[in-house]
Design brief:
Blueprint: E1 2-8, H1 12-28, E2 31-36, E3 39-42, E4 49-52, H2 59-70, E5 78-82, H3 87-96, E6 98-106, H4 113-128, E7 132-136, E8 146-151, H5 158-171, E9 174-179, H6 190-205, E10 210-214, H7 223-230, E11 235-239, H8 245-255, E12 265-268
Parallel strand pairs: 1-2, 1-6, 2-5, 6-7, 8-9, 8-11, 9-10, 11-12
Antiparallel strand pairs: 3-4, 7-12
Helix pairs in contact: 1-2, 3-4
Length: 270
């Protein structure tokens, strides 16, 4: 059976993310693997890292079991493992379990937040090759209502859209493909985009709440404001290192995090 891996570094951010991950697992009807991993600490200006393995704290597991029992409906199996960040451990985890996604909590207001995201990508996304869900510490919702996938429509990836449609269906949420042409590629007009969307994407997905939104490509745009404030996204979806990834993550975690209500990021491997 498929499972969600929750990264537990014994932090308050991990506990916060785990609460939502339990709700997510119940909606998706998948099991949970609570992965206790070392805390990676920056030790030198040259980005040298050391591992510190915290003592396993049963508090989160106990909290999980209590929440699971009071929630109606599906009750996921909860397994707790202690892992290192070595490739072998993570590879073994992925081989022995059908992992749907990895969930990690993050304090988005820390000065090193963007560095922490990149570290999580390098140590998790690149090694397990499944989507990484980043839960900001200030996000307090318990459902997704509007999922926005920022991409170039011509390269949106049908497997990604199918994954997102399944996720959206669990919440009866809207799924929006927000198109912005990748750098160096010709712009698409609305008629061309709608033709591609209808004939190449929507008809193969079959999700009634799948929509296309064209970002204004004729003038400089605050993409983050448009997606989060105007489109009212409560889950922002990106593909690692594709198209707008670096620009958006820099805006989100470094330049403008305090200006908008942070929402979770779902990052797919490239």
């Amino acid at each position: 059976m498929k499972s969600i891996v929750i990264i537990n570094d014994q932090s308050t951010e991990a506990e916060h993310a785990a609460v939502f991950a339990l709700i997510l697992a119940q909606h998706l009807e998948v099991n949970i693997i609570l992965a206790d991993i070392p805390v990676l600490k920056l030790t030198t200006a040259e980005y040298g890292w050391t591992e510190t393995l915290p003592a396993v704290d049963a508090k989160l597991t106990k909290n999980f079991l209590e929440r699971k029992m009071i929630h109606p409906g599906f009750k996921p199996l909860i397994q707790e493992l202690t892992l290192s960040c070595e490739s072998e451990d993570l590879y073994k985890l992925a081989c022995e379990n059908e992992i749907l996604m990895v969930v990690k909590g993050l304090d988005e207001f820390l000065p090193q937040a963007l560095l922490n995201v990149n570290l999580a990508i390098n140590n998790l996304l690149h090694k397990i090759h499944v989507p990484l869900l980043i839960i900001p510490s200030s996000w307090s919702e318990n459902e997704f209502k509007r999922i926005v996938y920022l991409t170039d429509l011509r390269f949106c990836g049908m497997c990604t859209v199918k994954f997102l449609a399944h996720l959206a269906a669990c919440w009866d949420a809207s799924l929006v493909i927000a198109h912005a042409s990748a750098s160096g590629l010709p712009l698409m007009d609305i008629n061309q985009a709608e033709e591609v969307f209808n004939e190449e994407v929507s008809c193969h997905i079959g999700y009634e709440k799948l929509f296309l939104n064209m970002l204004d490509q004729g003038k400089p745009t605050d993409t983050l404001e448009v997606v989060v404030s105007e489109m009212k996204a409560d889950l922002l979806v990106l593909v690692d290192q594709h198209f707008h990834f670096n620009f958006i993550t820099q805006q989100y975690f470094k330049d403008k995090c305090s200006l908008y209500q942070p929402v979770p990021l779902l990052i797919f491997p490239s």
